């Protein structure tokens, strides 16, 4: 199957048990990402963290309480603290105020319940139920006496964003650049997870900076869009919930460039996928001579089988028929190429034509370089 799939709800939980009933709690949030991250906490608010900066949140003792901590990316705020973020946005505010302003998916989430069961247990939970935007580590640092009258004992937790990126000896500390170019004779609204989205008129380009270690990344083009001044309305193909700056995957049909950076043996995995159908011709080009270019520039829309035709594109048969024969839902080896998948493969041999088309479709690149995605090459 393709190396990428939609996020699955997952939780990691650890429990800390105390022998005293009078303690406070400190969360130290450390940004080890190579780029700025906007930390968010309820309770707590929010804070812009440059690389290596940290933020300490103090919570009161002797009170059962719950809360959440997460990271926001690619944010832009005015002096008054109003703006937007590509992921984790909380109602457009720098300071996240309440449970009603929880982040907008996708985002990696730390959840906690403190002073439970007669003030002797903390529960701390790492959740992917709202998707994933950056890697997070949680460490219970310890328990120590504070010397303050209001709290005899303090429990201390370390929350680290991008724990692998700025460690000594790591050669993957800088962002990768994806240059997205529109060579179509019409406007394309580029979309990326992570990254958001941007309108590209014919001949324009957008440079997307992606953190090292990013998994499940994808880039696609949207067509025939109409957005109002607030960046809302929708697109004929590739629409991502009716917003300009995508925070979730696009609606089929859409041609996909997919990637996972700095994986096994520090390799990048990358592919062009037609598993969500086809709307725009695309090339996916590593900017190094040692890695293979991927191409999918055939006239698929013009020759699309009648059963797969869609407004502005050509559906993959899985989208239309939703059976194991086309979607491979029964696991590895449960499906094989079909006449419909061969239609795509014959025209774009570099691309995924069905979910288990791995052998000829996923490539690796070990140089740690940058990439170019070209619409209508």
From TrEMBL:
Residues 1-24 form the signal peptide. Gene3D superfamilies: Thaumatin. SUPFAM superfamilies: Osmotin, thaumatin-like protein. Keywords: Disulfide bond, Signal. InterPro entries: Osmotin/thaumatin-like_sf, Thaumatin. The keyword Signal applies. The keyword Metal-binding does not apply. Belongs to the thaumatin family. This is Thaumatin-like protein.
